[in-house]
Prior knowledge:
The chain is of the alpha/beta class. The protein is about 25% helix and about 30% strand. The strands form two sheets. Strands 3, 4, 5, 6, 7, 8, 9, 10 and 11 form a nine-stranded mixed sheet that branches. A two-stranded antiparallel sheet has the order 1-2.
Amino acid sequence: MADEFTVDTLLRGRITLLQPVRGFRSSLDPVLLAAFARLPAGRFLDIGCGTGALAFLLAAADPNATGVGVEIQARLASLATAGLARNTFVDRVEILHGDIRSAAGQPPLVRSSFDLVATNPPYRVLSAGLPSPDPERAQANHEVSLTLNECLDAASSLVSPNGRVVIVYPAERLQDLLAGMQRRRLTPTRLRLVRPREDRPASRVLVEARVGADPAALVHELPLVLHEGTTGGYTSEVMGMLGEHPP
């Protein structure tokens, strides 16, 4: 119903997104990850796509890309499907309502077939604070139905031999992420810390990994600063990611 969702836009109207009025709503993280993922995107997969922000951003950035967004929560998947129909890349993206843990390996999620696997997975283990009383937010933010290891299992099985896995994750869990990647022969090739402000410690990390890459090839990129110290507004780089001016 019209009063159950809002119609939002990204990239100055180039992308339309439907989001619940109450429940899980997208953050800045998909924007950061889409900008971090170098083009071309090729055939891409978005694990835990929510209402579609990351998948839509990748499709809009690369006119030749095709992709699949997988979402376990029925309402979010439904909104992603309805939102997709309002965008120009509707014929290049598919939204799949399903559990990536059981769907991996079943069409359209063919093993070793994706050039790019991107994910903004649940950040918090269940022991790290009480989940939100809203079940939708709890499932999106806590490892209720998808743990980091399960997400990496799916990513490593679905990425092509020459493909890439990109993820945005809390900086405080970076060691968990790197250890999980190492166990699956996903070798980090790029890493970028995300700081709320220049003088603040990192809150997020952006990581790109490839199957069996040379560990010596890891590039530590300059930190991404989100907010100006004086005004508190977004930095010029983030404004470029949001489409407010050329990046």
